[in-house]
Every structure is written in C-alpha cells, then in structure tokens.
Here is the input.
Amino acid sequence: MQQRTPEITIVGGGIVGLSVALGLLLAGSRVRVLDGADSDARASQGNFGLVWGQGKGWNFAPYANWTMDALDAWPSFAQKLQELSGINVALVQSGGYEFFTDPTEMECFKAELDQQAGYLGRRASYEMLNGDDLRSQLPDVGAKVVGASFSPRDGHVNPLRFLRALRCAVQAMGGRVTMGATVAAITPQPGGGFALARADGEVTHTEQVVLCAGLGATTLARNLGFITQVKPQLGELLITEKLGSRLPFLSSTIRQVDEGGVQIGGTKADAGFDDHESLAAIAGLARHAVTVFPALADVRVIRAWGALRVMSPDGYPVYAKSAAHPGAFLVTCHSGVTLAPLHASVLAHWILNTSPTPDLEAFDECRFALSHAA
Amino acid sequence: MSVDSRFLMLPETGNRMRFTLDDKPVTAPVGVTLAAALLAHSGDWTRQTAQGTSRTAFCMMGVCFDCLVEVDGTPNTQACMTPLREGMIVRRQVGLPALKGGQNG
Here is the structure.
C-alpha cells in the first residue's frame, strides 16, 4: 500500500487544533489531526462557550485588535461551520454584561475598558451602567448589584456542539482525525520533516507539525526548542436544570445554553493539574448568580465540574515558528472559542506563509525570552 | 388517565397515604416513593418533554430524570427521589419550568 505523507500534522484535536486544521484544509493543505487520550486535560470539553471581547487586551493592543477581528469574523464562520458540518453552534452576539457588587472593582474595570478602547479606536463600543440604569433595562437584577459594563459585541456559542461541529467540518473537508493518538515524541529528520512517535508505538512522518495540544504540549514544545511555558488555571462551573424561559441577559459568568440550562462559572485558581471542583467554589458561584439575579435561587443545580484553562505567562496567545526546526509551529491560547474564526483563516496563511501577517509578530514567544529563558 | 398500571404493589400493611394528582385524590401505601405511587396508580405519562413527548419514571434511582413532576408547587422534582408524604399536591409536568423574570416564560 502506498502511503502518502500528510503535509501537515496537527497535534491536538481540541477547539484550537481543529480550528487550525480547518483553516489549513480550507487553504488547500492535506491535514492530519492526532488527538490524545480521553483522560487528558481537555479545556475544550469543560469551557464556558463565550465569544467575548470585553476587557480583552486592555494592556496589550495587538490582542485587543485580534479579539475584535475575531468577533467580527464569527457570524460568517458559524455559517461556514453549519454548511460543512450541518451543525448549528447557536451563536448569539447580542451583547454581554459584566456585573459588579463593588464600586471600586467597577471603577478598575472601567479604566481597563477605557484603555482597551484607546487601542480599538472607533471599533470600541461599551457603556457603563449604574445600578438604577441597569435595573431599568433588567428589572429583576438584584439590589446588591451596583452597576455593570455592557459591550454590544459580546456573545456565546454552545461549546460542546461547537467542538463537534469543528470535528465534523474538518472531516468533511477531508482532514483525517485520529482519536486516542497521544504523541510521545517529535524528532526532526535530517532531510526535513518530522517523525512522530505515538504512545502506542506507531511512528508516522510529516512535513510540518503544529502543536495545538494545550497543556499537553509542554514537553513536546520544549523538546522542539520552544520556550513558552503554559500553566493550568482551574476554573469551576456549574449548570442548572433546563428552563423554559430565557434568561434576559448574557454575562461573563452567567449564561443560558440554548438548550435551557443556566451555566455559571468564572472562578480562577492555581491547583496544578487537579481539575476537581470544590463545594466552597461552587457555592460561591451559586451565591454570585443569586446576587445578580435572585430568581435563580429557585433553580436547581444539576452538575458541577472543574476544567483547566491553558495560560501562557502573560495570558495572551502564542503563535510561534521554530527557528531551530523549520516546519514546527506552536499555537496555544486561552480563548480558543473566541479566536477560532481567525485560527481557521488568518493563522493558516501565517503557517503556510501565503500572506503577509505582520500583526502576528506580536504573538511570537520571543516576548518571553528575557523573563522566562531556560 | 385511563391507562391501567402494569405494576403490582407488595402485600399491603394496611396504612395508606393520600395525595392529589392533578387535583384528583389518590392513595398509596405508606413508605413508597412518589414515583412508585404514580406507577402503581396509572400507566399513563407523568411528564411531557419540551418537545411534547410523553414520559414517566424509568430508572427509579435518580439518574434518568424522566420522573419529573411538580410537587407542592415546585417543578422538576424527581418523583423517584421523593418519599410520598400525606397531602402532597402533585401535578404532571408539561414542558420545562419557567424562570421568574425570564423571557417568553
């Protein structure tokens, strides 16, 4: 049997890896995706599903603009996904709130939004609402909420259906996705290309390799000479029973899935690779939700879980080409849902070197060279 | 509700509890769960899904959520996890519960 070498292998079949794979396929590349074990730390199966720009990159102009580009690109991306996969990811971009119970915190966030707006220029759009203004829009918001910010650009998708839509779209475009294919080692070959040794012993060759394995990419990336060190950040979430009426708002911590359940999340903790939820954190989330919208007190929690965010040292995405081993790429970020439309388009051309993308230089890992050099 | 139950109750101790199902009086032996009481009472559905499909208790151990009914005004109550109490007001549940302050509720 004649075996053709896949031109590009993506290591990691989560939201980031599949988005990059889809972009490369749409650009005409042959692509193979190797996905790891079920037991891996899978941010793509535990996340909140926000398509969110509010405050993103307030201290880093390239990220503010990159995020805004992504928000602009989402409607046509969702349409494309539906065409390719037959799956509606339930994209809604009707605007999102950030609620505050502490006036000082609200002032601090306003300062961040102002700085973000400075980077975004006329693309910026947000407003600050005091408690009375907010309750005139949303009468059932709790009395302890002192105000909110609102950005009309923010939205959300159904995250699990989005993951499935990406996988189906990649396969519909001819991409090969192999599950349970943990990559144990990547060895650059003398004549170019890479040998991928899988944990099950199988070895395959590829011309180019893109590491998109989130927290699982650490060792592979280091061995290819990348200096980025991503770390896990625990976020805990809960979901309620399904409701027949619509929650009248979307916020960064409270959202209603299109199927009716209310998802509540937003904790941040350093717990290493332990992704267990804790009663204290989940109770805190429930209290927060009831403070924001007291009618939620009568709604049952069905399930709670923890998931690990993939955090680079400064929290911004990393798009890096290996200098030592041309053809090896590292793609890692926290906001894989929000940025997916760009990972499935602009980033593919950056990998293929088929369009000038000077904006992406800001996301190179050389920014860590001074503080995090090995 | 004219579908006969296909469940047989254990030999009775004699004591029965009264509750109402959709405003009609029903009795069941002391010590059973609400789901067991409903299954013994009738073979008819006890809830309808958001899509209008008829369901009743299935797993009897708190997992399948097909036994959801309204108990004393609280919707989405798992009948199989709820011991029957004297005077319970039970309603079959149609669709998903509403949220106060929600839209289209």
User: Anything to note?
Assistant: Residues 61-85 of chain A form the longest helix (25 residues). The mean pLDDT of chain A is 94. Residues 152 and 332 of chain A are 27 Å apart (CA to CA). The radius of gyration of chain A is 21 Å.
